[in-house]
Design brief:
Blueprint: H1 3-19, H2 22-29, H3 35-54, H4 62-75, H5 77-87, H6 90-98, H7 100-112, H8 118-135, H9 144-167, H10 175-198, H11 206-233, H12 236-240, H13 245-258, H14 264-281, H15 285-315
Length: 316
């Protein structure tokens, strides 16, 4: 991989790593049993802040495109994810979430023309299996509504990733603005759902303001900016294969900050999932061939230009 691709991949990986801190922040700093309110507080203030900083509003078709992308990536994804987490043990919900790359592989092949390579599918399956070793327990039970919510939430985020790649952003508009549009749209979708399900907003103390500040600025605003930046510069499948870093980060934080023990099986699962994630970022033979051809073409073009300049000088 080139230095630029490695740097972009690392920066993009910071997004799911940040999302892995959500459980710790929510459990230690935020009001209990208010996941939808938390989702709205994550998305809407961050979106409005980014829109204010960019001072650009959508135009034409980008009003409805922003609404669609904001709903897929945030507005539908957050509530479905929280519903899955409430109806299922956390480990089952995390495994369903880690299956998201498989949705992206299929949708990217259908809508973006990205070939579904065996190595990509294998990396996605192995990563999901590794995550299951980390988070599943023998007592885990399935709930049909929770399973459906978990699957649909993964599909929603997967579709949002692919459509974000497909539509890109308007010419001359910054990524900051487009990220703000999506976060604002997603937050506006969540607010009425939160009001209907959870009622009036809870009273907030100092810890809650600190937690929501982190969730808004770092966990959502900065994280989604890096995520969408990665989608613009990498393939959709490469980006989504970074997703398993989120439950792995949550497990590490639980061990380091909450004193949760990690068994040998869990450690093996972490190594397996992390290895599959790294493997999924390595360019295959086709990508290497394309890069070599592009480099060869660049060198040939440069030689032709130099030759033309020399001939011009000779004529003079």
């Amino acid at each position: 991989m080139t230095v630029n691709r490695v740097t972009t991949t690392i920066l993009t990986a910071l997004a799911p790593i940040s999302w892995g801190s959500t459980y710790f922040v929510a459990s230690e700093l935020l009001p209990a049993d208010r996941p939808l309110f938390t989702g709205a507080m994550r998305a809407l203030p961050a979106g409005l802040l980014l829109v204010a900083l960019s001072r650009v509003l959508p135009k034409g078709a980008w009003w409805w495109k922003s609404a669609v992308l904001g709903t897929l990536n945030i507005g539908a994804f957050f509530p479905l994810l929280f519903l899955s987490a409430y109806r299922l043990p956390g480990g089952v919900a995390a495994v369903l979430g880690s299956a998201g790359p498989l949705f992206v592989v299929g949708l990217a092949a259908l809508l973006l023309g990205e070939r579904a390579r065996l190595r990509t599918v294998l990396a996605a399956v192995v990563a999901a299996f590794g995550v299951s070793m980390v988070v599943l327990t023998a007592e885990a039970k399935l709930d049909l509504v929770g399973v459906i919510a978990g699957v649909v939430s993964s599909a929603s985020m997967g579709a949002g990733t692919v459509m974000t790649k497909r539509w890109g952003r308007p010419e001359g508009v910054s990524l900051l603005a487009v990220t703000g549009w999506q976060l604002t749209a997603g937050g506006l979708v969540i607010i009425p759902i939160a009001a209907l399900v959870e009622g009036a907003p809870p009273a907030l103390d100092g810890k809650a303001f600190l937690g929501y500040g982190y969730m808004m600025l770092i966990n959502t605003g900065a994280a989604y900016f890096l995520w969408f930046r990665g989608i613009g510069q990498l393939t959709a499948t490469s980006v989504t294969l970074l997703g398993p870093l989120s439950p792995l980060t949550a497990a590490v934080i639980g061990w380091a900050a909450l004193g949760q023990a990690l068994t040998p099986v869990q450690l093996a699962g972490m190594a397996l999932a992390f290895g599959a994630t790294v493997f999924g970022q390595l360019p295959g033979r086709a990508a290497k061939t394309e890069a070599a051809e592009a480099e060869s073409f660049s060198k040939t073009e440069g030689t032709d230009q130099n030759l033309s300049m020399d001939l011009g000088k000779a004529k003079v």
